[in-house]
């Protein structure tokens, strides 16, 4: 695992189908509850979908952040993932991307994401 100061988080737009894995994240808050979902694709095929239910008091942004943290944990703990390969993680949460890059924000989940 890389030291947080050496993390290579790059924010860009678009889609790179050449990456060995493409991982899409989303978080939502609706009347029925709060949740996060992760869809993992290899060569255009969905190989895994992960879903997480959060406490109803959590926010949409917290759900988005949890999804990103769970992706990083999945990559870290999965034997079949080449840790040296480029893996593209896609999110629609500009707020979360901005928070990751803002070193002045020190919430627990942001610190967990940066440590990964």
Descriptive report:
There is one protein chain. The protein is α+β, with helices and mostly antiparallel strands and 116 residues long. The chain has one domain (18-115): Nucleotidyltransferase, domain 5 (2-Layer Sandwich), CATH 3.30.420. Helices cover 29% and strands 29% of the residues. The protein has helices at residues 60-77, 94-101, 108-115, and strands at 21-30, 33-42, 45-54, 87-90. A 4-stranded mixed sheet has the order 3-2-1-4, covered by helices on one side. Helix 1 (60-77) packs parallel to helix 3 (108-115). It starts with 20 loop residues before the first strand and ends with a helix. The model is unreliable at 1-12 (pLDDT under 50).
The CATH architecture category equals 2-Layer Sandwich
Distance between the termini: 7 Å
What is the class in the CATH system?
Alpha Beta
Shape: globular
Q: Secondary-structure element order, as H and E? A: EEEHEHH
Low-confidence parts lasting 5 or more residues at pLDDT below 50? 1-12
The CATH topology: Nucleotidyltransferase, domain 5
Physical arrangement of strands within the biggest beta sheet? 3-2-1-4
Query: Largest sheet at a glance?
Result: 4 strands, mixed
CATH superfamily: Ribonuclease H-like superfamily/Ribonuclease H
The percentage of residues in β strands lies in: 25-35%
- State Rg: 14 Å
Number of strands: 4
Topology:
Elements: E1 21-30, E2 33-42, E3 45-54, H1 60-77, E4 87-90, H2 94-101, H3 108-115
Parallel strand pairs: 1-4
Antiparallel strand pairs: 1-2, 2-3
Helix pairs in contact: 1-3
Summary, kept brief:
It contains three helices and four strands; from the N terminus they run βββαβαα. The protein is of the alpha+beta class and 116 residues long.
């Amino acid at each position: 695992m890389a030291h947080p100061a050496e993390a290579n988080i790059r924010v860009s737009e678009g889609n790179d189908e050449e990456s060995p894995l493409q991982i899409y994240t989303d978080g939502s808050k609706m009347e029925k509850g709060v949740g996060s979902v992760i869809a993992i694709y290899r060569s255009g095929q969905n190989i895994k979908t992960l879903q997480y239910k959060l406490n109803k008091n959590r926010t949409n942004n917290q759900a988005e952040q949890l999804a990103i943290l769970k992706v990083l944990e999945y990559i870290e703990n999965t034997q079949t993932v080449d840790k040296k390969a480029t893996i593209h993680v896609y999110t629609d949460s500009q707020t979360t991307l901005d928070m990751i890059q803002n070193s002045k924000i020190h919430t627990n989940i942001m610190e967990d994401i940066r440590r990964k």
